[in-house]
């Protein structure tokens, strides 16, 4: 947080200079921006409320694609995001388009935030998620869409272990 009002030029400039790093630690991938840990902050309701607006800025998209490609240039990477299979790594060996119902995604997010002690409204979370999906699907630059060669995996009725097992199965099938 900079304390500044939303300004596309400022955000564009910031995105061009920041360095994003992931540091695996036990069962968590810690996220750092310019050496400052932001693992929890990037999942806050304040950030998720504005992420689609920031992601629609062309210079930000370009900077994030460059950073993601840098992180994945040596291969052997598992990466998720709304344009990973269509824009960032269009030639990836395996693309999985993970989805779940808005209701299920809201419930998962609700449980995550409540566990952190945050006060959240489940109905509002559902509205926010549906709104973000709509914004991201309709944006002009790198819209949210399933790559033609991506496998669709609806996780609405799966827990995290089942999702992990299914992804590992798909990876092993592709490796053969």
- State the order of secondary-structure elements, H for helix, E for strand: HEEEHHHEHHEH
How much helix is in the residues?
Answer: 40-55%
The number of helical elements comes to 7
CATH class: Alpha Beta
What fold name goes in the CATH topology slot?
Rossmann fold
Q: What class do helices, strands and sheet pairing give?
A: alpha+beta
| Average predicted confidence as pLDDT | 89
Q: Which sheet architecture does the biggest sheet show?
A: 3 strands, antiparallel
Tally of strands: 5
CATH homologous superfamily label: P-loop containing nucleotide triphosphate hydrolases
| CATH-derived architecture | 3-Layer(aba) Sandwich
- Percent strand equals 5-15%
Strand order of the main beta sheet, please? 1-2-3
Alpha-carbon distance between the two ends: 46 Å
List low-confidence stretches. Answer: none
Q: What do these coordinates show?
A:
The model has no long low-confidence stretch (mean pLDDT 89). This protein starts with 7 loop residues before the first helix and ends with a helix. The protein has a single domain, classed as P-loop containing nucleotide triphosphate hydrolases (Rossmann fold, 3-Layer(aba) Sandwich), CATH 3.40.50. It has helices at residues 8-17, 45-55, 58-72, 84-88, 102-115, 122-138, 160-175, and strands spanning 20-25, 28-33, 36-37, 96-99, 151-154. It has a three-stranded antiparallel sheet with strand order 1-2-3, with no helix packed on it. Strands 4-5 form a two-stranded parallel ribbon. It is 50% helix and 12% strand.
């Amino acid at each position: 947080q900079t304390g500044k009002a939303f300004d596309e030029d400022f955000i564009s400039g910031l995105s061009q200079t920041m360095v994003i790093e992931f540091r695996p630690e036990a069962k968590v991938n810690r996220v750092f921006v310019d050496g400052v840990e932001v693992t929890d902050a990037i999942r806050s309701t304040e950030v998720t409320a504005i992420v689609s607006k920031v992601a629609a800025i062309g210079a930000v998209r370009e900077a994030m694609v460059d950073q993601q490609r840098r992180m994945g240039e040596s291969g052997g990477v598992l990466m998720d995001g709304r344009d990973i299979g269509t824009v960032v790594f269009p030639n990836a060996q395996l693309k999985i388009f993970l989805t779940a119902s808005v209701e299920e995604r809201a419930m998962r997010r609700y449980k995550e935030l409540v566990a952190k002690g945050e006060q959240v409204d489940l109905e509002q979370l559902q509205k926010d998620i549906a709104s973000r999906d709509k914004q991201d699907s309709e944006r002009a630059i790198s819209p949210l869409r399933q790559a033609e060669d991506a496998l669709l995996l609806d996780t609405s009725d799966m827990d995290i272990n089942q999702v992990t097992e299914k992804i590992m199965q798909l990876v092993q099938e592709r490796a053969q």
